[in-house]
Write the structure tokens for this entry.
Amino acid sequence: MPQYRKDIILDEWVIIATERAKRPENFREEKIKINNSTPAICPFDAGNEQMTPAEILRIKSNSELSEGSDGAWQVRVVPNKFPALVRDAEPVSRKYGPYMSMDGFGIHEVVIHTPEHITNISSLERSRLSIIIDVYVKRIREIKKNTRIESVIIMLNQGKEAGASLEHSHSQIFGLPLIPPVLEKEIYGTARYFKQNKKCAMCAIIEFELSQDRRVVYKNGNFAVIQPYASRNPFETWIVPLWHDPNFENIEDAKIDDFADCLKRVADFFHAELNEPSFNYYIHTGPLHLEDYNVNYHWNFEFIPKLSIKAGFEIATGIDICITTPEHTADFMKQSSAFK
Ligand SMILES: [Zn+2]
Ligand SMILES: [Zn+2]
């Protein structure tokens, strides 16, 4: 059973999940294994559906929704076989000396992007990305019905340096019984900005960036691709909705294609111009059952290529040092055919 443990110095939870556990002495060996790992049989390929836990959602070839039926498919959602969190635990905290712990309650699902053995999202069609985004929306709306789940994080790890353990293109959905620290910081930070300026910080960023055209790489009817002013990583890329909404899952169907358009162009850019480095992407959507942050929180998507390593200073201080300027990377990106 995974477990939350409270870091009482930082007042933050940590998850201890040993479902994939290796004995301590096996970590050296594991590093070598990961480097040559191409499994002979991929559990995410068409024909190997029995290798994953029972399916939660399937998008059939004709794009109709179906739960647990047979036949050809485009996208499947399954529970993670090695979950960092489990559904059948009680989110009750226990004291242990000065510490606190809690059973690892939560939801951990895998979105399999394609029945073919495709390893890069840049190889997926824009229409497939639209389906994947639509699946994210459907899953959050469903998970939201569970009032014990306070927040949902959707994320993708592509490439070894980004932490991917299976190369077949997939993303992950986490439902948590708490608000994770990064989201909490964004909520507090934007609440403080709102109090001082009577304005949503992201709306202020969008308004200013569109008027400046320095760090805006691309824009369509509903979204902009920008290099953030206070960038923490080289080529850190945001896809921001141009309308104010705290929650991604409120998105109207008609806007999903515009999001997929931006995501496809970002993926194509990193593939064509930078040889597709490992990356993480994630969607930050507001807390599921709180409403007092609605005016200040603006959902967002971040794509972080692994082009630099966080070193001692960053880890010790929490202050990131970015070795490029977002103005410079924005100029470079705008020249790419991916954004024409
Ligand atoms: Zn595969
Ligand atoms: Zn806003």
